[in-house]
Design brief:
Number of helices: 4
Radius of gyration: 17 Å
Number of strands: 8
Structural class: alpha/beta
Length: 129
């Protein structure tokens, strides 16, 4: 299963720093990056890699979203993680016309001959969606 990334910032950050109109302008913006992506300061747009101005790096998606909500910079996360903040106006999606990089999603479970029914049902549910 894959989920696509979106790029976003708080309205106050964008009011103070402007809204990037293309990915290359991210070099001039403060970016909050995910440290478990290697390299963390390279973002992909439509197959093109862009080096961003990494000012904050974290291995916590929740922290990245919180820092963006507080106006610390532009971040990238799966859209499902931030959709509620787009709806309530705490975050604004930027560069939505650019096809973002998609990340795979995995279900990790103990390898054994017996998989409990509820675990198997959940894996089947994830696979279907």
């Amino acid at each position: 299963m894959e989920h696509s990334l979106c790029y976003f910032a708080s309205p106050c950050y964008l009011a103070e720093n402007g809204i990037p109109q293309n990915p290359s302008q991210l070099r001039n913006h403060q970016c909050i990056t995910y440290s478990l992506m290697r390299p963390s300061n390279i973002w992909s747009f439509e197959g093109r890699k862009v080096q961003v101005n990494e000012v904050i790096k974290s291995d916590s998606p929740d922290m990245i979203v919180k820092m963006a909500r507080l106006g610390a910079g532009i971040a990238a996360m799966p859209k499902w993680m931030v959709a509620e903040y787009f709806e309530n106006g705490e975050l604004v999606e930027i560069l939505p016309q650019k096809q973002a990089f998609s990340l795979p999603m995995y279900a990790v479970y103990k390898n054994s001959n017996y998989i409990p029914h509820k675990i198997g049902a959940f894996i089947d549910f994830l696979s279907a969606h």
